[in-house]
Write a structure and sequence with these properties.
The chain is of the alpha+beta class. The strands form three sheets. Strands 2, 3, 4, 5, 6, 10, 11 and 14 form an eight-stranded antiparallel β-sheet that branches. A hairpin with a 2-residue loop joins strand 7 and strand 8. The longest helix is centred in the first third of the chain and has 16 residues.
């Protein structure tokens, strides 16, 4: 609607680089309000860059709106999955991709972050000085950590750290995780591929996000620092700032972060490529 005020007023920046060991950048991203998404293609020999670009192209059709609902996002995921599955031999067949990020949502007139995640690309939120990883990695290593079989501090050295358990394509039909997070003035969101989180510890990421006030400068520096620390994979970072958030003061106490199920009907209100588990263990 012309003249409408979006639920969250935004500033953002993005940066990407193939890294120091790869000739092709299989990461694709979308930084166009109300969508901020990273897709990390996997299976370099099967054109992961085509799979990731296909997913981002599907979501790009939703850019320019003030906000999106979960049914919009889930429909795009479903269509992206269909398109990736239909890629022809020699043109991406068999490839897959992660998908992570946030879209701006309007919930009863209030601004929310709607997060989506499939795979091990990540979404972080910096709020009131505290950095929190919002997404949960869909990876073999994360499953081992959750079961107590692997210490979190050993995850970065584990040979299975690049094996993921959910994806778009690559034989996976798993659903994404969705979360609704009440946005606050001053929020800073980071969406990144594992080429960034695999090189930079959380404290280093936090330090850069706090130090660099401009979102483009923050994204550029994050990618640069990941290069300096090794640059073993493709690296992508999107930094999104909430300049102001539409909210109802009377409802502030009820603005909780909640998981959201994928709709089944329209909603009324190591040193290597990321691999699907099918490639590593015979089944996703």
């Amino acid at each position: 609607m012309t003249g409408s005020v979006p639920p969250i007023a935004l500033a953002f920046g993005a940066a990407t680089d193939p890294g120091l060991r790869r000739r092709v950048n299989e990461d694709s991203y979308l930084a166009a309000a109300p969508l901020f998404l990273v897709a990390d293609g996997m299976g370099g020999h099967n054109a992961g860059e085509i799979a990731s670009a296909t997913v981002i192209e599907e979501f790009a059709a939703l850019a320019g709106r003030d906000s999106l609902a979960i049914d919009d996002v889930h429909t795009a995921v479903r269509e992206a999955r269909r398109r990736v599955a239909a890629l022809p031999p020699g043109g991406g067949a068999g490839a897959g991709t992660t998908l992570a990020g946030v879209v701006v949502a309007d919930v009863d007139g209030e601004g929310y972050w709607l997060t989506v995640n499939l795979g091990d690309s990540r979404t972080y939120r910096l709020s009131r000085g505290r950095l929190e990883q919002v997404s949960v990695d869909h990876s073999v290593v994360q499953e081992l950590i959750d079961s107590g079989e692997l210490a979190a501090e050993a995850a970065q050295r584990d040979a299975r750290r690049n094996v993921i358990t959910r994806a778009i394509g690559a034989g996976s039909d798993a659903e994404p995780d969705y979360w609704l997070i009440p946005a606050e003035d001053g929020d800073r969101i980071l969406v990144c591929s594992d080429g960034l989180s695999g090189e930079l510890e959380k404290d280093a990421i936090h330090g850069i996000l706090v130090t660099e006030s401009d979102p483009q400068s923050a994204a550029t520096r994050l990618v640069h620092e990941a290069m300096v620390r090794g640059g073993r994979d493709n690296i992508t970072a999107i930094v999104v700032d909430a300049l102001s958030v539409r909210s109802r003061a009377s409802g502030a106490a009820e603005r909780d972060t909640v998981p959201v199920s994928a709709p089944t009907a329209p909603v009324a209100d190591i040193d290597g490529d990321t691999l699907p588990r099918a490639a590593a263990t015979g089944g996703l």
